[in-house]
């Protein structure tokens, strides 16, 4: 989504409290540029982004997409002779992939190909979940926050009903539903992957809806919205031009975090046999197939796990970086800059501004506007 | 207030009804409940029998109301009309649940308490040392815990930690090189996480090295792993450490009277050690509880008698010390039974269990079965704790940072209060308030999340019951599991909202 210049955002000028001078680098920049600049100034987030992109590119190009072939020579289902006990041939010094970089299973299938397919499918599920949960959550939260009244009552009770079912239970039931639906309609197995993403997405939007509703509730009372309304703007225009751009930060950050819990959930379901089914590989299914071989071929267990952790970890770091970038009030204190000024004014100089972004405790949970700050951690 | 609670309860019941309807329908239509019978040679008899038993020829919506009628019977006290239906195998769901529920709740409770204690400690420490190496280390670790798939961690614990530790126990010895290497690494970690001037940090590193080396050497030299013991000396040593730590945290070392109260409690505990051993012989849970209560009372009494300007502080220090000394005495008794347990025919020297929730066929006194419980709970608990710990530590860090920037903390400092008083009295307590809500909201999700962990460890709790029933398209047990988690979640949400207005008077409940 583009970043229109919001009307009300206070000037993002951070004054140096000692000298009162404005740092030069913030003059004359749009909100989008500021966010981007802050994001790319965050080493952890940038490194994570690079690693994640590398994983995506590796998994997409190695096996190819659909009819387009990739550069890797083995097919995930092709059995072959087991070479050297199926040991991994990957070596860093000198860098070479060898015949089977991640090793082979006891049928001689290439683990690299299987892991790449699993990564592709897990990423597909993750992206579909992000899109669906983001759309539904934003629409439900936005409508109930903006129109209030009956719309809010109905939509929020619906949210309550869904949120009370633990995500794992809901997702397991939906996963089972997807599997039998695909089987009875004789669809290609890849349909399970998409259906799983759709259904997990439909299960995991409530926390986002609550957050978006909270944002809408505060924003709709602000002066700039009143001004727009007096100027005769329609509800649609107010929502899309005035309120939504101001909630982009919250939505983006939470969709990111939701995606990281979605990949954990999908792999867990596949591990339990309620997710992606044979002959398709998921990272979770790879682990469940190979855990019995742990004593003899541990690499079959390690590699898929490393990929899951890497994907979830990088997304979490990116989400954290986005949170810092979007919310200027909660910007991190920069210890380097403080050291340059050379004085230690206070033992906790940064405590006011550095309350951990977005993990903002739900202070108003006492009333029935419970803003639940996390996005379905129970998905694990 | 009462009208608020009533209104919340009524909404909660309606939400629960809606959600249960949804879950029932989803389970009922999620597959063919007869799928496993089609290839069966006796299908002719079995299919009509199951259709009959589970009422499969009525539509799922109507079956839900039958189920609801049975479930509503549970609300009538002492009427014995409670029925949550039968499972596919014809067992009553109520009896299935009553066992599974106990197992899961025990696992989740222990895991949650550990996660809260460890997570909050880590969060507070990293907030107080913001942007130090320690802070970055903890932050990275919590992110890692966030991103660990629970099943992977569980398999890892099972296949690597448990099996290798059991192998190690067969012949517990380390080469001197390995011993040195472990100690050097430990010292390095101490150096990296300590703070302050370089001299202090190096000192801490050396201390870490020496302590680690000493402990490992002691454990190996006394064959402690095969015959663990605490005995009077170790209980005394640990007890004194606890008393001093409690005083430092709660009263400050300058409050000598509080320290004396704590030390006196340790002495009383040591005196009680011998008479209590006789009581333990036929002992059960009640004896343990009584010991804990008595020790806490002794501690509180000692603190009160030692008195001084602040009796409450002394009483708190004494109470905490008494609690831990009681735990140490109990731990010592369990350790006395350890060799018998490990060498019993069912265990055969491999104590750390990787499956089930108790060793089948094992019989023994209270202490033996207690140890069996412990070895089975150990790995799933570690798994649940690690996963739940991350969010608590992040939240408590954020909350503590916010509090440390408040005006009243500055005021407290300006009054000249010691750093300990500022942190422990003014900041720490207030930082815990938002966590109360978080913990309460998390409980339902944690029970749900334990499903995956349980199924990896074949822990016979609600998780296994749930997964099995989902695979079998068997709605009644699924509904039972959902009902428990749903009710627990609802109750805790309500408690959270009520407790919040008590803890933070700024928040008012809409009456």
Automatic annotation (TrEMBL), chain B:
Pfam families linked: BPD_transp_1
Keyword presence, Transmembrane: yes
A GO BP annotation: transmembrane transport
InterPro entries associated with the record: MetI-like, MetI-like_sf
UniProt keywords, alphabetically: Cell membrane, Membrane, Transmembrane, Transmembrane helix, Transport
PROSITE patterns cross-referenced by the UniProt entry: ABC_TM1 (PS50928)
Gene3D superfamilies (alphabetical): MetI-like (1.10.3720.10)
Entry superkingdom: Bacteria
Domain ABC transmembrane type-1: 101-500
Cellular-component GO terms for this entry: plasma membrane
Membrane topology: Multi-pass membrane protein
Coiled coil: none
Cellular location(s): Cell membrane
Transmembrane segments: 105-125, 137-156, 176-195, 202-226, 232-251, 258-276, 282-305, 317-335, 374-392, 432-459, 479-503
Keyword RNA-binding: no
Family: Belongs to the binding-protein-dependent transport system permease family.
Protein name: ABC transporter permease
Originating species: Kocuria marina
Organism lineage string: Bacteria, Bacillati, Actinomycetota, Actinomycetes, Micrococcales
């Amino acid at each position: 989504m583009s970043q229109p210049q919001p009307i009300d955002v206070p000037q993002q000028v951070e004054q140096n409290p000692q000298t009162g001078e404005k740092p030069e680098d913030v003059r004359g920049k749009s909100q989008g540029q500021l966010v981007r600049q802050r994001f790319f100034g965050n080493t952890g987030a940038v490194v994570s982004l690079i690693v994640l992109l590398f994983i995506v590119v590796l998994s997409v190009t190695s096996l190819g997409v659909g009819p387009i072939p990739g550069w890797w020579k083995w097919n995930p289902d092709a059995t072959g002779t087991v070479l050297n006990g199926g040991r991994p041939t990957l070596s860093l010094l000198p860098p070479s992939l060898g015949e089977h970089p991640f090793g082979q299973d006891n049928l001689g299938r290439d683990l690299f190909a299987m892991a790449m397919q699993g990564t592709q499918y897990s990423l597909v599920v993750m992206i579909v979940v992000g899109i669906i949960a983001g759309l539904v959550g934003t629409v439900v939260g936005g409508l109930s926050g903006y129109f209030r009244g009956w719309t809010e009552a109905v939509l929020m009770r619906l949210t309550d009903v869904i949120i009370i079912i633990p995500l794992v239970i809901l997702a397991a039931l939906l996963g089972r539903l997807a599997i039998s639906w695909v089987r009875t309609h004789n669809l290609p197995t890849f349909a399970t992957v998409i259906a799983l993403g759709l259904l997990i997405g439909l299960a995991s939007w409530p926390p986002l809806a609550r957050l978006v509703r909270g944002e809408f509730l505060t924003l709709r009372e602000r002066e700039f919205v009143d001004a727009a309304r007096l100027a005769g703007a329609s509800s649609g225009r107010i929502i899309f031009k005035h309120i939504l751009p101001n909630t982009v930060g919250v939505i983006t950050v939470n969709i990111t975090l939701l995606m990281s819990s979605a990949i954990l959930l999908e792999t867990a379901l596949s591990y339990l046999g309620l997710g992606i089914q044979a002959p398709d590989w998921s990272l979770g299914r790879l682990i469940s197939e190979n855990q019995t071989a742990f004593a003899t071929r541990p690499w079959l267990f390690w590699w898929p796990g490393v990929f899951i952790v890497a994907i979830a970890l990088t997304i979490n770091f990116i989400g954290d970086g986005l949170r810092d970038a979007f919310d200027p009030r909660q910007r991190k204190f920069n210890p380097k800059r403080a050291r340059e000024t050379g004085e230690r004014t206070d033992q906790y100089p940064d405590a006011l501004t550095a309350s951990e972004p977005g993990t903002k405790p739900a202070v108003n949970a006492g009333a029935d506007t419970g803003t639940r700050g996390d996005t379905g951690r129970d998905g694990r | 207030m009462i009208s608020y609670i009533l209104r919340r309860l009524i909404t909660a019941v309606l939400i629960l009804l809606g959600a249960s309807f949804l879950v029932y329908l989803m389970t009922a239509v999620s597959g063919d409940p007869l799928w496993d019978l089609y290839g069966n040679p006796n299908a002719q008899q079995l299919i009509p029998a199951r259709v009959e038993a589970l009422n499969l020829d009525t539509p799922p919506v109507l079956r839900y109301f039958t189920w609801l009628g049975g479930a509503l019977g549970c609300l009538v006290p002492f009427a014995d009309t409670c029925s949550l239906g039968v499972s596919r195998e014809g067992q009553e769901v109520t009896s299935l649940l009553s066992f599974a529920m106990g197992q899961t709740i025990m696992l989740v409770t222990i895991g949650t308490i550990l996660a809260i204690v460890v997570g909050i400690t880590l969060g507070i420490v990293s907030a107080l040392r913001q942007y130090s190496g320690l802070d970055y280390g903890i932050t990275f670790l919590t992110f890692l815990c966030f991103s660990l798939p629970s099943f992977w961690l569980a398999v890892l614990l099972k296949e690597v930690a448990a099996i290798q530790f059991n192998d190690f126990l067969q012949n517990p010895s380390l080469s001197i090189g390995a011993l040195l290497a472990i100690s050097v690494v430990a010292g390095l970690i101490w150096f990296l996480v300590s703070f302050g001037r370089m001299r202090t940090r190096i000192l801490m590193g050396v201390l870490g090295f020496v302590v680690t080396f000493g402990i490992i050497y002691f454990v190996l030299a006394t064959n402690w792993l095969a015959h663990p013991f605490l005995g009077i000396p170790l209980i005394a040593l640990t007890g004194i450490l606890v008393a001093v730590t409690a005083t430092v945290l709660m009263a400050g070392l300058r409050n000598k009277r509080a320290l004396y109260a704590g030390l006196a409690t340790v002495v009383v505990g040591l005196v009680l050690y011998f008479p209590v051993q006789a009581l333990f012989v036929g002992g059960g849970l009640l004896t343990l509880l009584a010991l804990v209560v008595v020790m806490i009372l002794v501690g509180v009494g000692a603190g009160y008698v030692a008195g001084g300007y602040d009796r409450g502080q002394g009483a708190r220090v004494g109470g905490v010390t008494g609690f831990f000394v009681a735990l140490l005495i109990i731990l010592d008794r369990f350790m006395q039974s350890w060799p018998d347990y490990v060498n019993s025919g069912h265990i055969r020297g491999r104590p750390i269990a990787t499956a089930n929730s108790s060793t089948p066929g094992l019989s023994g006194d209270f202490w033996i079965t207690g140890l069996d419980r412990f070895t089975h709970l150990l790995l799933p608990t570690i798994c649940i704790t690690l996963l739940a710990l991350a969010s608590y530590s992040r939240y408590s860090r954020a909350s503590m940072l916010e509090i440390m920037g408040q005006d009243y903390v500055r005021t407290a400092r300006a009054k000249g209060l010691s750093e300990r008083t500022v942190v422990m009295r003014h900041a720490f307590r207030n930082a815990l308030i938002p966590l109360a809500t978080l913990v309460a909201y998390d409980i339902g999700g944690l029970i749900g999340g334990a499903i995956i962990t349980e199924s990896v460890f074949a822990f016979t709790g609600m998780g296994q019951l749930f997964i099995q029933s989902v695979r079998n398209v068997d709605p009644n047990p699924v509904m039972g599991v959902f009902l428990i988690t749903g009710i627990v979640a609802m109750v805790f949400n309500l408690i959270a909202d009520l407790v919040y207005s008590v803890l933070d008077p700024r928040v008012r409940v809409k009456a």
